Amino acid sequence: MKKLYLILLKTPLILLVVAIIFSSCVPQKKIKYLQQKSDAVAKTEFINARKINYTIQPGDNLYIKISSINEKANSIFNAESQSRQQYMNNDISVYLNSYTVDDNGFIDFPLIGKLLIKNLTIKETKNKVQEKLSEYIKESIVIVKLVNFNITMLGEVHRPGEYKIYQDEINIFEALSLAGDLGDFADRKNIVLVRQTKTGSNLHRLDLTSNNVLESDYFYLVPNDIIYVEPLKGKQFTFANFPYAVIFSAISTTLLLINFFK
Q1: Cα(219)–Cα(213) distance, rounded to whole angstroms?
Q2: The model's pTM
Q3: How large is the angle between the packed helices 2-23 and 244-261, nearest 10 degrees?
Q4: How does 57-84 read in b/e, with b if 16+ C-beta sit within 10 Å?
Q5: Nearest to 225 by CA among 250, 203, 242
Q6: Is residue 254 part of a domain?
């Protein structure tokens, strides 16, 4: 009878150890970024054409500021007056003082009137405003910024959410750093990028474990991109950190029981 009890006690312990070994931890190969294939020639230089061709669409918001030596002209052309400059220190204020592109692709600019800027880049919009403005004042400086440059990150990231971008361009690694990097269970080989188009949305998949991503057309993000990070298969059976305490506790308990029945 004692031998039967010993067998019954040892069997679960053996099964537990085998299960943990097979489930294991997340291997480093699935966590490392920018890996190079072992049979490939070492490459240290990557060229990216940066095909960032975002064009202004209806519903976009533009912050436009005119600077010149004529203070009166500045107060006329700028959306905010000098008395309200002190309140231009948060996102809501910038948004409220921006120009919204209407359904037909126009903005209504002071004195100049309606300007068609649909399908123009930020640089082309700046040049167009500058050209029209030259009819009224000379030696002016035009600043045009896209207010609604937002990136959304979901899935296996530490801080999912929508992030506002305060620069002209951003790549996927910079964007992920805003969300606190990927989690241990993130599938780095299968990052889903949802990009808005004029007719809907397109899906693109990126492999961040390969250094070839540095030359991808989708390495640089555009406004309203959505990044979804899928979890690794079998996430529920995988450990980020090996459960040493659980194993030692189970072994100790089993040994005590075996000694007891002996």
Answers
A1: 6
A2: 0.72
A3: 170
A4: eeebbbbbbbebebeebbeebbbbeeee
A5: 203
A6: no
Tell me how far CA of residue 137 lies from CA of 66, 113, 144, 233, in angstroms. Answer: 10, 15, 17, 62
Query: Does 256 fall in a domain?
Result: no
* pLDDT tens, residue by residue, 45-104: 888 887 777 899 999 999 998 888 877 777 777 755 444 444 455 677 777 788 999 999
Convert the pLDDT of each residue in 149-186 to its tens digit.
Answer: 999 999 999 999 999 998 888 999 999 999 999 998 89
- Whether 175 maps to a domain, the answer reads yes
Asked if residues 150 and 162 have their Cβ atoms less than 8 Å apart, the reply is yes
Q: Is 107 exposed, middle or buried (0-12, 13-18, 19+ CB in 10 A)?
A: buried
Same-domain pairing of 33 and 154:
yes
Q: Which two tokens stand for residue 81?
A: 């007056």
HSE-up of 158 (CA within 13 Å, CB side)? Answer: 10
Domain extent, residue 217, equals: 29-51+149-237
Amino acid, single-letter form, for residue 168: D
Residue 248 covered by a domain: no
Tens digit of each residue's pLDDT (9 = 90 or more) over 176-198: 999 999 998 899 999 999 998 87
At residue 84, the pLDDT reads 46
Contact 77, 110 (CB under 8 A): yes
